[in-house]
Amino acid sequence: MNIPKSHPRYKSLLSREVVVSGFKNGLTSLAGLTAHGRGETFDYLLGEETFFFAHAALDAAASLLLLSKFPVISVNGNTAALAGRELVELSEILDAPLEINLFHPEKERERAISKHLKYLGAKKVLTPGGGLIPFLRSNRRMISREGQKKADVVLVPLEDGDRTEALIKMGKKVITIDLNPLSRTAQKADITIVDHIVRSMPILIKKITALKKETPEALRSILGQYDNETVLKDAIFQINQRLTKLSYE
Ligand code: ATP
Ligand code: MG
């Protein structure tokens, strides 16, 4: 589709097209398309920018990932389509494995995502097997023995609430990227980046590169000042304030 750059929703429509292509190329599921729509709605309400609360969460996320002993990056169909290149770069700079975890597990889609990530430069892509999340019933409880099972920190962008909760119950620290500050994932995660994955991934990479020079004490101090509850309240306040302005001004 040819979207004119002058279109007020240009970037948003471009992302939508990327997810639609992801579906056509076997990366994204049909349900993934509607999940993207939910994200778009919250982006629209927030104002389609990376706000200060997202920056605070990105600083904390970068610090936690750098302090982590074994971080793992969980990848699903939407994240692979929207931010595959950045996920591979992040995996490289953190020396953290990429692990495919699908809400609707299909071997064929797993293979397509793995192929796509490898095409973008990933050296190794883990798939579920050998590990189980004890608090989940469905196929989604499958995790990799070499990945999430061993991880102390898991980055789970655009994740479902059940899995997030279960990973936390397993004692893992969870970082998410989720445009909906009200979702169970956003509410349960240790660090919630309320921002579009396409905008926030390059910022996360930049922040990690800059913070790599810092001492563990400095990173711990950034984490110590971070409060996820405040970040979620600030995001909800942003929507509230924006809608109030639009309705009364
Ligand atoms: P939960 O299960 O956590 O209560 P949910 O059922 O609404 O949330 P899921 O479909 O399980 O949502 O997970 C997808 C989440 O990702 C949603 O909260 C959605 O708002 C968010 N999301 C979708 N697209 C993007 C995007 N491009 N960037 C950031 N977040 C997104
Ligand atoms: Mg859900």
TrEMBL record:
It comes from the Bacteria. Keywords: ATP-binding, Coenzyme A biosynthesis, Ligase, Nucleotide-binding. GO terms for biological process: coenzyme A biosynthetic process. GO terms for molecular function: ATP binding; ligase activity. The keyword Ligase applies. The keyword Transcription regulation does not apply. It holds the Pfam family PPS_PS. InterPro entries: DHS-like_NAD/FAD-binding_dom, PPS/PS, PPS/PS_sf. HAMAP family: PPS. This is Phosphopantothenate/pantothenate synthetase. It comes from Candidatus Gottesmanbacteria bacterium RIFCSPHIGHO2_02_FULL_39_11.
